[in-house]
Every structure is written in structure tokens, then in C-alpha cells.
Amino acid sequence: MTETRRFSTALIDRLRSAEAVAVLTGAGISAESGVPTFRGQDGLWKKYRPEELANFDAFMRNPTLVWEWYNYRRELISEVDPNPGHYALAQLEKMCDTFTLITQNVDGLHQRAGSKRVLELHGNITKNRCVSCSKTDGVSRTIDDLPHCDCGGLLRPDVVWFGESLPQKELELAFDTASRSTVFLNIGTSGVVQPAASLSLVARRNGAYVCEINIEETVLSGQMDETILGPSGEIMPHLVELLKKNRM
Ligand code: BV8
Ligand code: ZN
Predict the structure, then answer these.
(1) Model confidence over 67-97: pLDDT tens digits?
(2) Which domains does the chain have, with CATH numbers?
(3) What does the DSSP 8-state code read for residue 154?
């Protein structure tokens, strides 16, 4: 039985007739796959502070510590699978004329669940980049227990750290998509990291219906049209089921 009580008619109507749906996801959408979030109870940053790990200076000061953290996360991500929330978004993409999935996550689970149009704002944890020549597909060899590029440069994870600019193309496309969207879903993000956190506000300013799906209220909740409280792995499949009944 598909629960309808959770979703407003406004959301269902807007999604049914939506010309352009945009979604922003954060670590919360991968939580039910077993990937720890950053700032939650079991958060990755409970043990370390982000400043110690997710920034370039910290990396150059202690590349071994930062690589330990990323290798731990890579290992963990290689052992998990997408969850029903990821799969529901891949289905929603097929049901919408225009659909863009913007993610802050670096775990690649959306693509593994079948999502096609994915904008990775913060990079991808499975890729390396050379700090000297910026090559991302360089042959890696180990020097002093650390991965190095064939140019001799140190390799780093190809993700966006604090104080680093986001990939220009993806960022511009994300803001353009948000401003043109008629429905914007903010799923599993605490809404504290910029500039990603501004996307839903840009969408709303341009007339989109903005709905947040999270297990708790966030700093953005007061600026949403609707907040649905619950795990995305449960909410999203229900929403897609309901749309299928109402739409196709
Ligand atoms: C930049 C590395 C230009 C990748 C990360 C403007 C205003 C204020 C500050 C700034 C600003 N512009 C720039 C800044 C500084 C900084 C920033 O935003 N700081 C914040 C903390 C104040 N931003 C930057 O530095 C960005 N760069 O703007 O460049 C520039 C350059 C120089 C100087 C100035 C500007 C770069 C940002 C990217 C940083 N990289 N990580 C990696 O290793 O993963 S950030 C990290 O946070 C991750 O990327 C993550 O994606 C991101 C956001 O976190 P969330 O995904 O939201 O995760 P979180 O744990 O916080 O929340 C999880 C949520 O899920 C919770 O709400 C929870 O309730 C919910 N949840 C849990 N379970 C479930 C669930 N929801 C649903 N279902 C569930 N089951
Ligand atoms: Zn190199």
C-alpha cells in the first residue's frame, strides 16, 4: 500500500505536471547504503575535523593521514550498494521530460543505480588527480608509500576540498538547471556547504516548488515549500509509486 499521507497534493500536482525537475542530494541519500554522513551521529567527521582532512593544506601537510581517510572511504564504498532511494531517483529521471540530478556526493552510487544525467559538484572519490600536472588518468606508482603520477607528482583524490573551486562546467550547469526548474528536491543534505546549499534557494526565487526530504529539519527547512521527514530510502520509492499511479 502506497502511503499518500506524507505527500502534499501541491507536490504531487507539481511533479505530475513538472516541465523540469531538479534534485540535489547529499550524504543522507547514501546513509541507508551504509555510507556514514559527514555531520551526523555516526559522521565521518566525528573522529576527524574536516579542516584536518578535506583541504589542500592538510593534505600537503600530512598526505598519509588524508590518504588513509580516503582509502578507508573507498574501501567502504566498494563494499556497499545503491539503496532504494538511489533507484527511485533513477526511475524518476525516466518519468520526467527534463530531469537533472545534482549531487554533492563523491561515491558514484547514483550512477550505479542507473541515473544518467548526474552532475558531481564535489568530484568522485574513485578518481585520482596529480597535484603537479593535474592529469587524472596518470599511471600511479608508489613512492614512500604514497601514490605518485608518472610525472613524479603526488596524486590526490579527485574531489573538491574546502577552499577549492567547484568544477566550473558542473557548477554553471547546476545553477542554470536550478533556475529553470519547476520542482526542486533537496534530499539528504544538511544544507551547510556552499555553493551547493544555495541551489534550492535559487530555484525557489525563480518560481520552483522546493521540497526537502530529510530525517530531521535543517537550516534550509524554513525556506522550503515543504519538508518531508523520513529516510529517503523509504520516502522516495513511495513518492515514485504514487506518481506512477497518478501520472502514467
Ligand atoms: C568554494 C570533500 C569557492 C569531498 C567537501 C559561502 C558562504 C559560506 C561559506 C562558504 C561560501 N563559499 C565557500 C565557502 C566555504 C566552504 C563552505 O561552504 N563551508 C561551510 C562548511 C561553511 N565551501 C567551500 O570551500 C567550497 N568551495 O566555494 O570555492 C571558494 C574558494 C575559496 C574561498 C571561498 C570560496 C567547497 C565545498 C566542498 C567541500 N568538500 N567534501 C569529500 O571528501 O566528500 S564538503 C562535504 O560536505 C561533502 O562533499 C558533502 O557532500 C558536503 C555536504 O554535506 P552533506 O552532504 O549535506 O552531508 P551532511 O553529513 O552534512 O548531512 C547529511 C544530511 O543527511 C543530514 O541533514 C541528515 O539529517 C540527513 N540524513 C541522514 N540520513 C538520512 C538523511 N536524509 C534522508 N534520509 C536518510 N536516511
Ligand atoms: Zn603528474
Answers:
(1) 999 999 999 999 999 999 999 999 999 999 8
(2) 4-35+82-122+165-247 (3.40.50.1220), 43-78 (3.30.1600.10)
(3) B
